[in-house]
Amino acid sequence: MYLPHFLLPLLILQAKTACAAIDETHFSSDNIIERDVAILGGGASGTYAAVRLSQDLNTSIIVIEPKDRLGGHVDTYVIPSSNATVEYGVQSYMKYGNAAAFFARLGVDIAAPNRRRLTNVNVDIETGAVLGGYNPPASTASTEAMKRWLTLAEKYESILEPGYWNFPAGNAIPAELLLPFGDFARDNNITDMAPLAMAISNVGIGGLKEVLTIDVMQAFGAPIVREFLAGTMFVPVGSNSLLYQRAHDLLRNDVLLRSRVIQTERDGSGVRLVVKSGDVTNRLIKAKRFLVTAPPSITNLKPLSLDPKEKAVFTTWTPTWSFVGLMTIPCIPENYSVSYIARGSAPADHLALRNYPYTLRFDSTGPLGQGLFRVLFATNYTISNEEAKGTIVENVHKLAAAGTLNATNSCKADFLAFSDHNSVLRRVSVETLREGWIQKLYGLQGHRATWYTGTLFGSDYTSNVWALTDTVLPRILKDLQ
């Protein structure tokens, strides 16, 4: 192919820039940080790993976090002129693994959740009118189905929790794990647990029936079901953010907030990371090992200069868009919950509740008299924060237009807080799983001095993530030796 001569210098410059080595002489000694382990992400797994490594395992660390705080999906709203707080992100925790002990070590007391009884109204997601033809399962039927699901999930707990270190390959994968969940649920008479499973885990956006059973178990597996049925979940006394505030106080000198990696060099001997922190001069981090805890989307990992082995795995993730917020919605009474569901679920197709491109729910949060509602909104298509807000408000207006809950057209919904929890999902085919996809995923552990933890390598709950991290850290330490 012929190229004009005036383009050649530009292409050469671009090529040099793309593969330019990090020049350590460009950094002053004050801006070079040397550590045993650099941690990308200060959410649940990153914060936990940082505390465990630095305080328990005699390992120096540095945490790189793009937000202005630690805590990831923990979102706490402080009511103005009050010490009262409302949790609109993470809601509660399981007494699984080291979870309760981790709160204790940071001096945060725990207690049973104060569950508020809400009156739930199911509305047609297309119109906002009450979907009177849908008959949800009775609570006793839902509980019995949940118990049957737990028995089924516990059969595979040893290969799924915490993490997939022992997961089989090829034809050794249990066949029922690879069934579409709709078939599995009907075969095992557990369809009555589907509404609760979707509400608790947020699984099945766009439709639950075709999601593989193994992926439903990732989202709503044995540990969470067991604790839900036993009623042993807990919350911190104060707020969910308190744990991460205490962790930041402990780690302060080893945490870079409002920071992002812009260039990397990784090989078997260690990593070098160029980090941009706001307007501060770029820093160079030199670490023996690198622990990635951020969601492994191609966008998040782009600065890591992925090699073909890594791209072969990470390009298979499915993006997901998920949002949480706190709103005032005068046309919904306090102590009410409004669930938008697909009209095809009537009269009793519990697996079809989410047969729609997005899902939406409003829950009254209290304190009483504040008119506050937690909003949960998620889509299976690309959407910006502002577009998400617009769709949420549009659905409030549908309630008013339909006269639902005696709503009026004057209903004005306002956002007090809003946060995106966008990530990626593991949604690969049966054939891809049988070809060893999970083994390839876990084969990246330690590759190019890089290790991974977080929800995409295990289950999507804080306590599970901490338990998974406790299986990764000893491997990192052995690798360092």
UniProtKB/TrEMBL annotation:
The keyword Oxidoreductase does not apply. It comes from Clohesyomyces aquaticus. The keyword Signal applies. Pfam families: NAD_binding_8 (PF13450). Coiled coil: none annotated. Residues 1-20 form the signal peptide. Gene3D superfamilies: 1.10.405.20, 3.30.70.1990, FAD/NAD(P)-binding domain. GO terms for molecular function: oxidoreductase activity. Keywords: Signal. This is Uncharacterized protein.
